[in-house]
Amino acid sequence: MAMQWLERELRRTGNPQDTLNADLIATMLKHRGKDIPMPQVAVAKEATPVEVRRFTKEAKEALRDQGFAVYELTAQSIASVRDSGRKFWSTWHRDNPQFEALTSMHSEVAINPAKLFLPKSNNKTLVQQEDLIARFSEDLGTRIQGVEAIMGEVPDYVDLAFTHLNATRNYLFGEKDGYNYARTKTPTVGSSVANVGSFDPAIGLRVDVWSRDDGYGGVFAAPLVVPKA
User: Fold this and answer.
1) Residue 223 · residue 147 · CB < 8 Å
2) Which contiguous run of DSSP H or E holds residue 160?
3) pLDDT of residue 23
4) Which of 90, 137, 148, 213 has the fewest C-beta atoms lying within 10 Å of its C-beta?
């Protein structure tokens, strides 16, 4: 208790003035009949670290043997990537802070930079492209155990593009890839979903929108390989 603690600490000093003050506190305690509780100090709880999903050693080796690059995504968003100094040449999403705050998955992800897009997956609807990725996933699973392929969300492809750039100095969705786009599952407005691509070294990465019910020549299915759930 606060007053008892203060009385005790004053007596410990051996100072005559402190002893007199301790006697005063003792008298106050006697008249009051009870002590004053010590203030409770809130102890901040450490945030529980989010576990990153990882490939098995065998799966990672098999992926790399087949031309895949493995990266770790760690909850990056359009906003956090831009705040780190990276460029986006699309600006419409600045007016949608919730969209810009969406974060990438906590997971290792594999892509084949030489085969970023599934062949003939452009000019197709979202559903058709998801079906192509499901078939790709099934085939890949027969060759490499413990993995699956998915269509990611906007922040997954954004995080991946800049992570790959950091690792290789090469631009996914850039000139080598025809400045084409990866379709994502992330809704924007109406029936549209977001696309990520057209990565230009001078002006940055672009996030665009396209109707989920329409295909387009520059919008492809770009599967992300992840540890199987």
Assistant:
1) no
2) helix 154-168
3) 76
4) 213
pLDDT, one tens digit per residue, over 93-129 is: 999 999 999 999 999 999 999 999 999 999 999 999 9
pLDDT tier at 52, thresholds 50, 70, 90: confident
How, if at all, do strands 219-220 and 69-74 pair?
unpaired
pLDDT at 44: 44
Can you tell me whether residue 133 is helix, strand or coil?
helix
- DSSP letter at 219 equals E
3-state secondary structure of 122: coil
Contact 150, 133 (CB under 8 A): yes
Residue where the block lists tokens 């102890």 = 43
Query: What are the sequence ranges of the domains in the chain?
Result: 2-32, 57-227
Of the two residues 134 and 41, the one the predictor is more confident about is: 134
Tell me which residue of 134, 76, 111 sits closest to 182, measured CA to CA: 111
Quote the CA–CA distance of 197 and 70 in Å, as a whole number: 19
pLDDT score for 5: 57
Q: Which of 79, 129, 71, 134 is nearest to 103 (CA)?
A: 79
Contact 139, 223 (CB under 8 A): no
Q: Give the residue among 95, 195, 101, 212 at the shortest CA–CA distance from 154.
A: 195
- The whole-angstrom separation of Cα 91 and Cα 161 is 18
Three-state secondary-structure class, residue 59: helix
How far is Cα 111 from Cα 220, in angstroms, rounded to an integer? 14
CA atoms of 95 and 106, how far apart (whole Å):
26
